[in-house]
Amino acid sequence: MVVGLRMEEKIRDDFQLPIIDLLSSKSNRSATSKQIVKACEEYGFFKVINHGVPHHIITQMEEEAHKFFSKPLSEKQRAGPANPYGYGCKNIGLKGDMGEVEYLLLQTNPHFITSLLHNSNKYISQDSNNFRCAVIGYVEAVRELACEVLDLIGEGLGGAYPPSSHFTGLIRDVESDCVLRLNHYPPCDDVRIGFGEHTDPQMLTLLRSNGVEGLEISLEEGVWVPVKPHPESAFCVNVGDVLKVMTNERFVSVKHRVVMKSYKARRSMAYFAAPPLDATITCNSHSHNNPNPNPIYRSFTWGEYKKATYSCRLGDVTARLNHFKMPLSPLPLPED
Ligand SMILES: O=C(O)CCC(=O)C(=O)O
């Protein structure tokens, strides 16, 4: 049985995402930054290896996530509902999207994590100190990686863009709105939508998975490309809507989804790097490399865009972005 897939879809499995070796940025930073910019322009997705996130930090987070999802449903539900933070099962977001997924959505601010574990009515872990240390350690390490990638992007985009520190400043800000989502897709003996098609609204996403396939990206309408989970030590990085807007669509924010067809459970951890809610997102069109000389979007705050995201269904990507597009100039009146 195939649940939730459209009949007319095509699968293209002859494509591999670019793999960027971050170690090579030590000897040739400008070549690495150009490779990343090219990947962001062409595919909106790439993998990074030699990324510097320590193995034990990843393992510790994976173990805590595994412990959480292995608990009986009634216990996991004590960490819910996801409104938006906390435990969610099958219901994704607030607009009725469904998927064969369980998740735990966390704000990454250490104060939020501590107060979620100790002062809220959501119960996540018996050993909350271990859980807290794992999340804080993981978030710190992946934020560094996100900042390194954003710095390389800023350098690769060249002088016409805000300096690299502008991108990373938004993520390092104590008020930044970065979130971590731990996902668990149960095994199945048919084909099921685990996470419906969507783009990520934030700036940049760093995704780790346990090596079980399922992630697919759509580089053209109706065609899906499975992302091979190799090499296992890699992070998958993707451009979110905010970075697409900031580069005036020089970068693409690409639709992706998870389709489960495995007897093994897929687990993933997605870190979404986002600015503070009141940060202004402005698109930069003043670059001779930019194919779009006029700004496509008006300025807006991340908070406004986040609200628009929560008010749409997952797949309504065009609708939520259109809301922030510059009005089209009126057509000239016909001459007499
Ligand atoms: O689990 C995955 O591979 C993708 C997850 C995802 O797209 C998300 O959490 O937004």
Automatic annotation (TrEMBL):
Pfam families: 2OG-FeII_Oxy, DIOX_N. SUPFAM superfamilies: Clavaminate synthase-like. GO terms for biological process: coumarin biosynthetic process; response to molecule of fungal origin. Residues 175-275 form the Fe2OG dioxygenase domain. The keyword Glycoprotein does not apply. Keywords: Iron, Metal-binding, Oxidoreductase. It comes from Sesamum indicum (Oriental sesame). InterPro entries: DIOX_N, IPNS-like_FE2OG_OXY, IPNS-like_sf, Iron_ascorbate_oxido_reductase, Oxoglu/Fe-dep_dioxygenase_dom. Coiled coil: none annotated. This is Gibberellin 2-beta-dioxygenase 4. It comes from the Eukaryota. One of its GO terms (molecular function) is 2-oxoglutarate-dependent dioxygenase activity. Belongs to the iron/ascorbate-dependent oxidoreductase family.
